[in-house]
Predict the structure.
Amino acid sequence: MALLDIAFDVARREAIRRELAELQANGLVSLGSDNRWRAMHRPAHRSSSPARHPDHYTDSQTEQLIATRASFVTRPLVVDAQIDDNQDESETKFDPHALLRYYKSALQYDPRGALTQTSERHGETFQLLAGEGSLFSDTNEEVIVQIRTDDLPSAFREAMIRRDSQENGVALGWPLDVGSQFGAPAIQPVGLFAAVWSRSGNTIELRVATNDVLVNPDWVRTTARLTPWTRKDLQVLFQADGGSGLPGEEFLSRLREAAARAIKGVVNGHNFAAMIDLNETGIHDAVALFLPQGTTFTAGAVRDLDVIATWPVERLCRTALAPLIGLSHALEHVPKVAGGLKTWYSIGC
């Protein structure tokens, strides 16, 4: 910036930063721990066919994870379920759909700690994403993340196509905490967004329909072990009423206070890092796509909850789920003929 004489020109300085970020996302340059930019060395055995991105998304020489470029946009959310205007006021303040989404996200947790990943799994079961935008949406909005399939590592594309006709639920982890586990670098998402993915031509689209962030239980355990925090206190801190997730801005505000010493640079959830240096331990303003590792029956339950979460409150009140999610019973009386006599009984609760 000094050589180009733009040190005091905000617009030109930002243009240079964006260009460097683009080159970094394309795997052409890297930023070392000494804050110096270096050209990346491509493998000599690369195919001669033209390609924008290298197939290696972890630079072993500089111990960096290289992100895939993505776009982050918001659009109006189409809500199918209608709430009865005559519904009790106490029920309108409680969101049973948020609780159902929490149950669904809880099913996606792997008790073996699948949301603690190593650098060797980058480009296979999780992939760093770079871009400008936000994962936080306002009311009646959703976040759409778009990625070109050609920009993704081949192993990651194969893993996604295997799930194409099965479970389309994925998790977006943000921000990412870089640490160590058993002497090797470990990456843990602090917060988790639930998303569904679909494919359209050469583009993969991730849809984040709700602005609720669930804290990663693995991160809670690790942080409680290394800091004065207890697991219970951390879990309560990052939970909303009813055990559901927090809105993005609220989650970020609490994280800045609870883990102030661990945060590296600026973490605002609007400009996601194009790379992560594994030597820089701490919390980075980076987002990654994590593929689910759940069992078959768990995936089926997740799909069922996806459907149930779209039901209007009136229908939920007529099911056995009503007392579990804090709704009042809506009893239906139907006739039953027994011994020639007509009796009445209640069902649906």
In short: The radius of gyration is 23 Å. The CA atoms of residues 21 and 274 lie 6 Å apart. Residues 42-56, 80-85, 109-114, 340-349 have pLDDT under 50 and may be disordered.
